[in-house]
Each structure stands twice: as structure tokens, then as C-alpha cells.
Amino acid sequence: MFLRSSRARFAFTITSLALLGLPAIAGAAGEKDAEAMKLHDQAMDEDYLAVEFDKAEKKIKDALKRCGKDGCTDKVLGKLHIALGTVYGGAERLDEAKSEFVAALKADPKAALIDALTTPELAKAYKDAQKEAGGSASTPAAPSGQGDGGQSSSKPEGDISHTPTAEQAVNTPVPVYIEIPEEVGAAKVGIRYKPFGSKKWKSLDMQQVGDGWGVEIPCDDVTTTGDLRYYIIAKDEAGDPVGTAGSLKVPYKVPIKNEIDEAPSLPGKKPPQKCAAKEDCPPGLPGCPGSKGDGEARGDKPWGSSCEETRECSSGLICLNGTCEEGSETTPDKKSTGKKNLAGLWGQLDLLLISGKEQGVCSGDDPSYVCFYQDGGQFYGQPAAIPGTNGIQGGLGAAGARVLLSYDRHIYQITPSVALTAGLRLGFAFGGSPSSSEGPRAWEEAAGLPAPIQNPHAQANGFLPLHAELRVGALFGNATLAKKKVIPFAFVGGGLAQVNASVNVSVCDYRGADGSSLAGGGGEGSCPAGTRAVRDLNAYQITGLNFIGFGGGAIYGITDNFGVAAELKFMLMLPTFGFVIAPNVGPVFAF
Q: Where do the TPR repeats start and stop (predicted)?
């Protein structure tokens, strides 16, 4: 009796523990499911719709890692693998998509494709996965969120209000416009669209138009009647989505018809012109290759499309700052277009072409040269005419550097590809030559010394660090700056500047440091009797204080407002002559 009751109590205890543990296990699984599905929804509803496939892939893989082997239910695992396969399909990695579908069907034989995100390619990959998995999973849904007849009855999703274009005529660009509240923080807006009958979605960047953003979907994608589908994605400065209008699941639709009542347009713009169908493009028809007045074949890119050359844009548009805009390449007054001001901060290296001279560099009778001791005092001696001394060889010498602020103005469009500019440079020079705090001493007369007896040296003036320059130039393009474009330029000008460079010189001096005569002395080193050896004098060639400059360079646009520029400037120094080669580099800003 006792044994029987003990066994009963033991069985009761085990059963109770099991029953109490089941809710905990189920709760843990439910918590894992919730965490995984949260990442799933973020990946598919945000990243995938924003065409950020790499971000979507990472989040779904993170969800699978959190699930582990037994952390999530089979149903959730199936959904995660289906989602990852869908992402791979969007990135056209169909083999990987099929592998994920196989994994989904093995985890959950009832796992099905995401109705609104299915494409014909994904449907085929799913069917192949069914055969490989050996299951009888659900039949794939109709692609791209279409129900029977290919129509979607759902209202477009999104958190930004948008009114779509009511209708558009076939072979005519479709204008799309949206106003985005300032608090959304949109810095870039793009549109994803799918022409009627197409299997793939395409992308365009929208441009700021009035108080909103707009773009024209090109003729090539409006060649037949039917619904054009699209959705809009707004992103912040970091490129992260901050809002959408419509979605890949439920996009907006614009009916494309043979005839419409009223032609739509972007605010402040003319309605886009109908393009000639490619099969109806005989020579001479406006907008067709070889038509009169075009000069060359013209593309069909509408207003707002990105471009590199005007010929890519539709007739009547020009490529300006990388975008197809209204205008003509040749206007009667030939005024410049786009941003007309360019400011910059430059670093300049001065390389002076030093003139060679066999004798007389430190003699004081040539105003182009002034010599200093290593301690900074000016040399006022009387060098002897000894071969190999008191002379220099010619060549380039580093003469210091300059920091310059620049401003240039785009004044006049001479031709479609050449513009006249004017500008100025202000800055400060580093380096140069020292000045002397003491003037030359009178020389002591002594028998046997060569003439002149009067000291010919002049006290050295201080170096002028100021740089001021005016210039005119030619800019070879129709804008001061354009994203991912190199714009060459040339210039000529002049201004105020001084460029001095030094070389080492050794002399045999008839005079002592105080100007006294050394006549009768025994000489020093290689110097003859009556002289002293002075080694390593700094002989500065003095040039300026004015110059005439010319040169050229190029600007590369990192954006439409910011870029980097480099130029090579040549300076003819006057009235004390010198020739300077001055490379420059620095950032520039267009406004």
C-alpha cells in the first residue's frame, strides 16, 4: 500500500513538473518568434522596399541566428527562409534564392512565397525548390501583388501623402510630383517604377521642383497602353529611408492611354512632349536621329533625368549640371547657366628658376642677389675673384609656399562649351628672405686692395608676404562645377607678389666681418693671402614685387556644389626679373 502511494505521488510530481514546464518552453519559443518576425518585417517592409538588399539580407540572417536550431517554430523558420530567398531574387541571385526556398519547405512544407513580392523568376525558383524538397507546398501566388486579372484592389501604402498623375498618353514622359513635409527630413528622393508588361522595376532620382520633388518617367517605358506602377522612397543624408509613398506590395498606378483629356505636367513646367515611336522615326522628324536642326541623334531622356551629354536628353532639353533641363545650347545673349560663383582655398608651392652666375653673386653690385650669414646677419664683404667661389649654378629652387583664398565668377557663355570667367586671389606667403637690422659699414682703405673702396652693398629690405592677384580665364564647360565631371580651365592675370629663393655660396673675402682690411694676412684654406674663407653663405635671388601669371588646370566635381581643383601657374616676376613655376591644389565650392 505504501509502495503504491509512493509511486502515485512520484508520477503526479513528474506530470506536474512537465505541465508547468511546457508554458515556459512555449513562452521562450514565442519570444524568439516575435524577435525574429520583428527583424523579418523591418527587412521586408523597409529595406527591401527601399531596394537596400544588403541591409535586408543582414537582418534576416540575424533573425535566423537568433532562432538557432530549436529557438523558433517551423512556421517562422519557413517565413525567414522565404524572405531571404525573396531578397536574393531581388538581387538576381536566383540560385541562392532557390536554396533558401528548399530550406523553407524542409522547415515548413506549407511555406509559401510572399504574395506581393513574387516575380515570374521567383515563382520558377520556388517550383524547382518544391521538386528538390519533395514536398507539395502551396502554389505560388500571382506575381507582383496582382490578383486575378493582374489588378490590385488595395490602397497604396506609405506614410507620405501623394496624389498620382491621373493619366498619360502613350509615348509621352510621365510626370510624377510629391511634396514631402519638412519634418520628414528628406535629403534625397527616388522613384521605383515598373512599365506595363515589364518583369523588372527601374529606378530614377527625383529632383527638387518648387516646394516638392519631381521627375519624368521616360518615353522608353511608356510605349504601350496599360498601368505604369511606381512607389516613392525618401531618404535622409545618411541614405536611410525616412518615408515612402506607395510600396512594392501596393504601388501607385498611372493609366497609359492612347488619348487623354488633359496633359499633366510638373509644377511650373510645360507638359512633356510626345516622343516619336521608334518604328515611326523617319529622317527629318523632330526628336528622331538625323532630324533637321538637331545636328546629331538625340536621346529620349526626359526632364530631371541624369545625363553626361546634351545628346542624351530629349529634343528641347540640355544637359546641365548632370541633369536634363529646359533650355537651348545656344541662346541669343549667350549668358552662362547654372551656378556662377566659385570659391576656393588653395595651397601653392613656389619653385623659382634661379639664374646661373659665375662671379659676383655676393659682391653687392647686382640687386637681384643678397647674401646672409647662417646666423641671419647680412654679408657686406668684398669677395675676391677666385674661380669656384662667389658664383652659383642655375636650376629650380624651392622658394616657399602660399595659402590663397580664391573667388571666380562665371560671366559669359562664349560658346556652348567655353565660358569667360574673372576672379581674384588673396593670400599669405611663407618662406622668402630675411631682412637686415644693420646697414653696411664703410670699408677701411688699404693699399693693394682692388677697387671699389666704397662699400656697394645695400641693406636688404624685408620680404613681402602679401599675395594679391586678378585674372581672367576660360572655363571649358557650361557650368562651374558638375558632379563626377572634370572641367578644364585656362587663365591669364597679374598682381602683387615676391618670390625669393636661396642657394649656398662660398667666398674669399678681403674684409673682416667689421669691414676692416685683411691686407698682409696669410690667407685661409683655399683662399689666397689677404682674404678669409667664408663658407655657406645663403645667397637669395630676389624677384618681384609684381608679376604676370598664366596657366591652366582642371576641376573635378565630387558633388554639384563641391569639388577639388588643381592648376599649374607660371609667374613672370617684375621689375626684378624671375620665372616661377607654381603648382596649386585645393577644394572649391560652387554657389
A: 78-111
Residue type, 63: A
Running DSSP on this structure, what letter comes out for residue 185? -
- Extract the C-alpha cell encoding 210: 518648387
Whose cell is 493619366? That residue is: 167
C-alpha–C-alpha distance, residues 251 and 230, integer Å: 5
Query: What residues are paired with 562 via a beta bridge?
Result: 589
* Reported pTM: 0.46
Question: Are 254 and 168 a contacting pair, CB within 8 Å?
Answer: yes
Number of C-beta neighbours around residue 207 at 10 A? 18
Which of these, 321, 306, 308, 329, lies nearest to 480 by C-alpha position? 321
Among residues 269, 302, 321, which one ends one of the domains?
269
The β-bridge partners of 231 are 192
Phi–psi pair at 120, nearest 5 degrees: -55, -35
CA end-to-end span of the chain, whole Å? 100
Q: What is the pLDDT of residues 144-186, one digit of tens each?
A: 444 433 444 467 878 899 999 999 999 999 999 999 998 888 8
Query: Does 47 share its domain with 133?
Result: yes
Closest CA to 44 of 72, 95, 80, 91: 80
Domain count across the chain: 4
**Exposure b/e, 534-571, CB count within 10 A at least 16 = b:** beebbbbbbbbbbbebbbbbebbbeebeebebebebeb
Are both 76 and 44 inside the same structural domain?
A: yes
